[in-house]
Structure formats: C-alpha cells, structure tokens
Design goal:
about 45% helix, 7-stranded mixed sheet, about 10% strand, globular, alpha/beta
Length: about 290
Amino acid sequence: MESEQNIENPPPSPESEYLPESSTIELIRQTTLERPPSRALFDFDGTLSLIREGWLEVMIAMMVEVLRQTGTEESEEDLTRLTMQFVKDLTGRQTIYQMIRLAGEVAARGAQPEDAQTYKKEYLERMMKKIHGRREKLRSGAQEPREMLVPFTREALEALQTRGVDLYLASGTDEEYVREEVELLGLGAFFGNQIYGAVADYKNFSKQLVIERILRENDVDGSVLIGFGDGYVEIENVKLVGGTAVAVATDETGRSGRPDPWKRERLIQAGADFVIPDFRDCEVLFRHLWRES
C-alpha cells in the first residue's frame, strides 16, 4: 500500500468551494465560531475505521435473500434497490433498526418475519466471517493499523488533542466490537473510556443520547461540539444542538482522496458544514476553525 505521505491531493471540483490551501475541504456553509470546539465526537466505521469496509454489500445480500424467500415476484434488481435505499437511510443508527425495517418488509409481503434480533445475529455472523482475516492480521501484527484506518486519522486525532479537545466515539456497531477494534487500530489512548456503541437494550442508546450526555456532563452547549461522520444520523444530530458538522464522505474501497458522491450528497442534505474525503488536510480545517494564522 502506498504510504499516506505520498498520496497526492486530487484536483478540486470546479463547481465546489474549498477552503484556501486545500483541494479537499469543501465549504458548504460559512462557519464563524465565537470560541473553538472543545469536544469532538467521531463515528467509527467508515469515518475512522476501514475494518468493516464492505459491510453494505454483506447486509444487502442477506436482506435480498430473506425477501426472496417470501415468494415475492420482484426482481433481484428491484429488491437490491429497495434494500440499498433504506439501509443507507438508516446508516449511523444501530444495526437493529435496519433489521426492524427488514422484518417490516417481510411482513408487507405476506410472510411471517423472524425477530429483528435474529436477523441481526445472522448479519453479524456473515460480517464477522468477512472481516475475520483483517482482525487477525491486526492482532498478530501482520498488518499495520494505518492500512485499516481512513487516511491520516491519527494525525487528525493528535492535532485535536494538541488543541486540548476531548475526544468521544459513538458507533451503531455493538459496543464490544467497537472497543475491541479501537484497540486493534491503536486508537485507545485517544478515546479512553469515552467510547459508546450499540447495546442489547437498543432503545437506551443513540448518538443523540451520547451528544446530550456529553453536553450535560461537561455543562457546555452544543456550539463547542464538532462532529465527524459518514452517516446522515450523526451529522443531523450534531447540527440539531448547534454544533459544527464535518461530513467524512470516505471512498472506503478506493481510498481515492475524492468524496464518495452518494455520501457527499446525503451528508450535505443532513446539514454538513464541511465535506472531506479523509483527514489529509485536517490541519487546514483546524486552523480555519481555531482562527490560527
């Protein structure tokens, strides 16, 4: 794999506005902060970690199989299009919500659905089989953590810590897996115990609840929060409390340094203030927000 330091910045899109000194930080909304952020919330999969790259294909394939078993006359293409849409719409929420929607689609076709937790268990088994080799290579040292991180992740986290920002992580993936994969990627020291993931009692966890907890426990308002994510939910939640939202529209497969077009469009709709493909120009963004010369 080519080292991050040798990755060239792609040419900017002529129709977009970018921060000065950067061809990758797209400015969607002018942002002037009374004070710089002191709390940063990160999504995990697709925003920092690439361990689960390919999860979408695994989930869609399983769902199409389940829906075909209802006896529907819909084509595989139509079922794929349907599931792709609602899965992407729910990206950022706990996996169980996608499975609840799957159960609803089964019922709508006149069949008896399994419990959503059963569907989730099946998906997780397939997903863990897909990523088993990646996790084991990281565990054994056969693969460097950087190769499974969104480019320049560590540099961005270090830059925020240097500025005195407290870092939090919230993921729709089950918390036990998130914590384990944070350690495999060597990111534990950045987040400490401030890592939150999906729990069995899914109604008592959401990224919105994590945000409310951060603000309440630190007695701060949302204006000091900056959020980074590649899902609609976390961008929307950060904006609802008055925070700054950075859409990380990662090209997870190609790592091209260009934003994934579908992610970019959806995250702008969610209210993103900036769009980045990865963290290569993080210092430019932080100097802008911190008003550093």
